[in-house]
Amino acid sequence: MLDPMMEQLLPGFLDECKEIAERVTDHLIELEKAHEQSRFDDLARGLHTLKGSAATLGLAELSELAHRMEDAVLPLRGKSSALPGALTDALLKTLDTWMAHLRATTAKSDLPDLKPSHKLLEAVRHAVQAVEPGKPAANNGKAGPDKGKTAAAQEKEKKSTKREREAREAREARAEPVPPEPAPEEEVGAAEDAGSWRVRTREVVSLLHEVERLREVRLRLEERRRELERGLSQLARLGILAQTAEVRALLMGVQRALSADGEEAGDIVASMEDELKTICTLPVRTVLEPLRRSVRDLCKRSGKLARLSIVGGEVSLDRRVLEALRGPLVHLVRNAVDHGLEVPDVREARGKHREGIVVVRVEQQGNMLFIEVSDDGNGLDLALIKQAARDLSIVPGAELDAMTPAQLHQLIFRNGFSTRRTVTEVSGRGVGMDVVRSQIQGLQGHIEVQSTPGQGTRFTLTLPAELGSSPVLVVRCGEHELGIPMAAVETSLLARSAELRVARTRVQLSHREQLIPVQDLGTLLALRQPEVPHDGQPLLVLQSQGRRIALAVDEVVGDRELVIRPLPPEVRDLAAYQGAATLARGELVLIVRPDWLSGFERRDASLTGTRRALVVDDSLTARALHRTALEAGGYSVHTASSGRQALEQLRHSSYDVMVSDIGMDEMDGFELTLEARRRHELEAMPIILVSARDSDADRQRGAASGADGFLSKKDCAAGRLLAEVQAVIARRQGAA
Amino acid sequence: MKLEARFPDGVTQEDRELLERRAARLREKPREAEEESVLWAAEFPVGEDSYALPLESLRAAVPLRMVTPVPLSPPHVIGILRFQGQILTAMSLSSLLGGRGWREDPAVLLVVDPGMGGRLLALDCERIPKPVPLPHALVEEARARQAGAVAEVTLPGLHQVNLLDLRLLMDRRASEKRDA
């Protein structure tokens, strides 16, 4: 029975032990490969800390077991050989049991039996003692020179071992004392003291949202200051300086104060964000390092040799994202060893190193995170995938035969897909890559696979990294402002026809002796039909995932430091967007994903239907409703929010019908119709005017301006608009 | 045991009968008690029809501005907006209901909680809604008659209010999306 006060310390102790256990695991795995004194010392220190801390909390059984682990390890102190495989196995298993026991104690659940661990350690201790001093212990076929190592590496190792032996002999000759036993780390009683608090995740997340709001408020403060500045300039322009002197002085004082307050608020927000980042993020290696153990254990079972290499493990990620990534990463790495890598003899026969390599590479670009899990194994076996798809009736046979390798690769993400005929502990249940994909999609990310037969497989996970702000280039496309992460923007330039290569199906930009595909942002977002950039139109050269494109936009508004936040669930599935950010005035700007922009060859996303309609209305709702009705009737719809915008669209694109509101600011529907009819190419385009008022005067004026039809908004119920559109088109065709 | 009413001396039989009728009326269940069993709803027009949603699901009514359109989104999505630090999706109710006509361009957004884990949504609306009590009995009767996102509640005077079940409406939309 634990002292109630000690019981309160258990959760903190568990956290601390998790970290120590991870470190000890890492050391055991590395020491099994080769001896390294500093690692050995740290291993011994870790076990000693577990022992001392458990004793302090009154966990006698755990303290005793940690003591036994020390007993098994310490006889090897000063020996230059690698840890025997059997000892490593025993220690790892015992450590697992130790942690399971501690977790169960904390959760007050059934405690695992520690006796088998004691027996295992005792058995292995005798075996290790039986090994002659100086003779390397049998190590899973690794006794003797490692076949995989180069001669130079083996020579280096020999020298290093020799140096260590010489140093030890010299120490013994000088009668120097053996380095003291590592002192236990800070006592556990202090784990939950004033220096560290346990805080609920929900509370930190809530604080995080509040800081994001505060940042937006700070941006709005800056906007208010600019508005005040504009007001002051207007007052000065009025020329009544004497009469307004007092007011202007007051306002200038407010402006200065607002500026100072804004700066201070900015500093506070930045500092809070930094602090919160420290609290809310962890290096990605905290999830990746434990995978070394998985790889090792899997190799032991399968007779394979593999090394896990981690690049970019220092990248810090939101703890919530990390936690969600743990499962998919474990799955991908285990799959790489189990499915991907060949056994050593086969690898050798293929001219590969006996030891396979699995690489996890993490890279953050702006607010996007890229994680690659690759191996240098077999690559995906297309014949096996086909066979499995056929056996599992996932795809009809004829369809399978027509599939490209890339399409076949996609089958591994199908529910229930497995190429394994037998179920093993690792695979074969058909529950795997589909779950990985849905977990990644749950993080608003996506997963891609590339594979080359005989050379290996690479999975690329792309995810948004939520915390903090990042630089974004805001551009305009028609009436839409959109953001593009600056990390993807290589350069911006103005289009010149001499540098454009215009073919029938694509446009390319000659840039720095390279031909880059040109894409129009408006076309990609289905806002307008494809068009060749005109002279002077801004082009952004973007690079993402190794692909470059030149993106045509209407205007470069400028760069901003923005907090990118996820889109709400109703629009989160749209692959085009990374999220949205708040601009200074409080409006949202959509952030487009660079990999989505660069990931497609010339796409005609503009109009996929057979008939095309342009809807002009200053009401968002009206545009949505007209679009609903017309798309239901098979029309592809573009929209414009003003007469001027519509005329601009009509300059570049042709439509089968235009549906326009009458009551719009600047240019109403009558003027738009008159203007359109003045253009020769638009003379025959059917035009329907829609009005909130249903008056004869409007109908007559509409007809006089050249409109073909007239509807009141209340008549626009489903079917009526479509019927009217079809009627006016038929009338026009009949007249022609 | 039955209690006999005691009357002061000099009260006529006619007065007695009048007083007893009044007492009997007072002993009846008060009308207010019946009226308490109502569902308060926010009623608003969509074109020629009258719609309502439970008042408890209404969080705010805000002007329809500062909505950012989302290219490539489904037609019923009119855009996204910020509301109290959250990013919400604004949707066209008329489009969600299958494309009904409207009398005036919506100028109001209703911020609602459809009961999906605290997630809020914004729906466009032609006018600021007014609170109306809908008798529970009529609501239950309408719901029993039609299983779906809209229950046609017929009030005395044959005034018909279409009571929305936002959660069902959104679920229906989600399943349509899945099927597509």
State the gist of this model.
The complex is a heterodimer of chains A (736) and B (180). With 736 residues, chain A is α/β, with parallel strands linked by helices.
Q: Kindly estimate the percentage of residues of chain A that lie in beta strands according to DSSP.
A: 15-25%
In the CATH scheme, the class of the largest domain in chain A would be Alpha Beta
Strand order of the largest sheet of chain A: 10-14-15-13-12-11
Largest interface: A-B, 49 and 40 residues
Q: Termini of chain B, distance in Å?
A: 72 Å
Query: What structural category arises from helix and sheet content of chain B?
Result: alpha+beta
CATH superfamily of chain B: CheA-289, Domain 4
Strand order of the largest sheet of chain B: 8-1-2-10-9
Question: Could you walk me through the main structural features you see in this protein, from its secondary elements to its overall organization?
Answer:
The complex is a heterodimer of chains A (736) and B (180). Chain A has five domains: 4-139, Four Helix Bundle (Hemerythrin (Met), subunit A) (Up-down Bundle), CATH 1.20.120; 201-283; 287-464, Heat Shock Protein 90 (2-Layer Sandwich), CATH 3.30.565.10; 469-598, CheA-289, Domain 4 (OB fold (Dihydrolipoamide Acetyltransferase, E2P), Beta Barrel); 611-735, Rossmann fold (3-Layer(aba) Sandwich). Chain A contains 23 helices and 23 strands. In chain A, the strands form five sheets. Chain A has a six-stranded mixed β-sheet. In chain A, strands 2-4-5-7-6 form a five-stranded mixed β-sheet. Chain A is globular. The model of chain A is unreliable at 132-154, 165-193, 422-426 and 602-609 (pLDDT under 50). Chain B has a single domain, classed as OB fold (Dihydrolipoamide Acetyltransferase, E2P), CATH 2.40.50.180. In chain B, 27% of the residues lie in helices and 34% in strands. In chain B, strands 8-1-2-10-9 form a five-stranded mixed β-sheet. Chain B has a five-stranded mixed β-sheet with strand order 3-6-7-5-4. At the A-B interface, helix 7, strand 17, strand 18 and helix 19 of A face strand 4 and strand 5 of B.
